[in-house]
Task: structure prediction
Amino acid sequence: MNNLNLVAPCGLYCGECLGFQRGTCDGCRSGSGECLKYRKICGIFKCCITKNKLELCNQCNQFPCKKFNKFFETPVWYKEVVNNLERIKKIGLEKWLKEQEMRVEKLKECAEERGLKHCSQCKEWPCRYLNRPPLTPD
Result:
């Protein structure tokens, strides 16, 4: 699998998602899995990948544009994806992916400690690892 499949053009980390972890999705840019339904309606994907032929939105001169405000209406989500894309620009994709991998391991450990299969089953947000609900394809 291409490591780029682990990051959506908007800056979400697909490796956190329940669909990705259970093997029913390979990320929104993979062309297979549960994200296909969202990819069809996602204005950010269409703009970044289809129209502008970019890998990530942070490569665009208009980043962050109005599409981010519209798509990520909740300030916590908006702040996270913009911070993710700014961090990728600063440290590079591979280092950022390693950071995300470590973060998701902590999420998995926390869920396991609580007897859960995925942190999406937990209702104690914000928590020490997430200040928003976890990613799920639902």
